[in-house]
Amino acid sequence: MKKTNQFQAEISQMLDLVVNSLYSKKEIFLRELLSNASDAIDRAKFLALTDKSLVADNPEWKIQIAADSAAKTLTISDNGLGMDAEELERNLGTIASSGTKKFRQMLAEKGGDSLPELIGQFGVGFYAAFMVASKVEVETKKRGTEESFRWESDMSGSYTISDGERDFPGTSITLHLRDDQLEYLDYWRVADLVKKYSDFIAYPITFCKKDAPSDETEEAKKSRLEREAKPLNTMVALWKRQKKDVKQEEYDEFYKHLTRDWEKPFETIPFSGEGAVEFKALLFLPKKATMELFMPNRKRGLSLYVRNVFIGDDIEMLLPEYLRFVNGVVDSSDLPLNVSREMLQDDAVIRKIKDAVTVKVLSVLEEMKKKSPERYAEFYAAFGTVLKEGVHSDYARADRIKKLLKYPTARTEGGKSVFLEDYVRDMPSAQKDIYYILADREEDARRSPVLESARSHGCDVLLWCDPVDEYLSESIGEFEGKKFVNVAKGDVSFGSDEERNAEKAANEKAAETMKDFLSSVGKVLEKHVSEVRISTRLTSSPCCLVQQAHALPPSMVRMMRALKQDVPEEKRVLEINSSHPLVLKLKDMKGAEFEDAVGLLYDSALIAEGSTVPDGARFAAKIAELMMK
Ligand code: ADP
User: Fold this and answer.
1) Residue in 272, 233, 273, 231 with CA at minimum distance from that of residue 253
2) Chain segment 515-541, per-residue pLDDT in tens
3) Do 81 and 40 contact (CB within 8 A), yes or no?
4) Candidate from 36, 42, 148 with most ligand 1 atoms within 8 A of CB, to mutate
5) Which of 11, 39, 210, 511 could be joined to 68 by an S-S link, Cβ 3.0–4.6 Å?
6) What gap in Å lies between CA 575 and CA 205, rounded to an integer?
7) Measured between alpha carbons, how far is 87 from 168 in angstroms, rounded to an integer?
8) How far is the CA of 36 from the centre of ligand 1 (A)?
9) pTM (2 d.p.)
10) HSE-up of 11 (CA within 13 Å, CB side)?
11) From the CA of 596, how far away is ligand 1's center (Å)?
12) Pairwise CA distance, residues 147 & 290, whole Å
């Protein structure tokens, strides 16, 4: 068999960039290939737990790097799982895998031009081989199958798959090095790279020279063979080593190996559980959030090892949803080796580990909040949105999580935000509740006339502008015994009890004297609002729109509509500032003039909150008319 296929378009694009990359760190190709080899052995070991026939050859797991100076080739071989023809085609011809998916995202986000320098900074996985090679051959035989296959490409936009000659399971990747990349045939160069990037790989990585120089003395040969017999890596799992014995760079490289992230981790958290369950964990907080965090079918969770055997790399039962940005490894000897995902689902040990991991992460965040607020702010900007979900989903720890939340407020400036405890501390003594306003954008919230009276009473208002805030408003309950109150909903008044009472009395009086006026306004706006009333929220604006106290939150309405439920259009309440000069003027108007003015008043209330007016053309015409006058 022999067939030639075109690469998927994104791959061709990526290969172009890889080839043209002038990036100095071409060396990372080795890290990528060794990572893949180690993954392939991990997977073979794992599958062999339930299918002994896969390890009928009784393998001694290992990875070998063979250099042939005459042929100018470097071959990286493993005796891991291998691939069948279909997998070869899928894995090395299309973009489906994690590292390359990230690459595709980057391409989409940044466009192709600016990328060459980025190439070397992160895992493009297997394709990184083309940074140093002009041609790559893959020979592979999948464990448990009889046939072997050969994949070959010289980056010309296509690859071929044909029958292979490999007679033992695993994969060998042969790189035909370009003439300016022959340094990778050198033992010392390779040994350095393995130390630098792949020291923690759990299987021995050895180097061998295929073609010894013809003038090699007996002695030189002896010392070379001795050298080559020793693995280049120490193979000690990082999470099992004492923190003080591990350099941050080693953690960084491990993190990159684990996550395929191209940046260093933001925070490294090694810890171990003792007592009820014994385990070792090495957790990382990444620097940036990826779109993946919000994808329904994302891979998430921690890698799990049981007594050094890799069980899986997305064990979501080890992490609550709201900490899904955490990466890392958990290694426990308290689990049986033959665990299946179903068993993990309600395993008491797993639950205890999850609890311990959750508490650890929260306490690291609490510590960070206390000791380095700026760092915490950086973390929060990336992952606050996800963390917030915990208030809703982790009832037992909701209070702890609430203390980690920050919000911009009507008073903050320049991207600053405050913790709830700061908000509460700064509340005027007469203020009983915590005020918030919901909006899609911070600017809209800040401009809202609804904030006027709160401001004039010295009350600050939290600006909730994250989509998740709206859901949270239903479940956040109380903080330090204080209720959360939406300032744009129902009856809200500010100030001391006396002030409120006085205001209420004044409003009732105004409502009485303005009764006819309010009902005429209501008639004109019948189609748009459910009620027109005197406002306690306004000082300088003539009017604003608020929700009825019992109104459904807009997110709920959207959801119900999506579920094809019949949700009637909710009309809002128009609140009027009874002492505003414009309102006083309106009172004296009649007929068409009155109707137009009321229409404009309503439209301007919409514009003030960042909404659009129902009939833009009419609005513009009326404004023009008004200006003419
Ligand atoms: P990633 O490793 O990020 O998934 P790669 O481009 O490096 O992306 O590899 C794509 C896929 O090819 C891997 O997910 C794996 O399934 C397969 N693969 C690569 N190298 C090997 C190998 N040495 N043995 C078995 N499978 C491999």
Assistant:
1) 233
2) 999 999 999 999 999 999 998 888 889
3) yes
4) 36
5) 210
6) 74
7) 18
8) 5
9) 0.72
10) 24
11) 68
12) 39
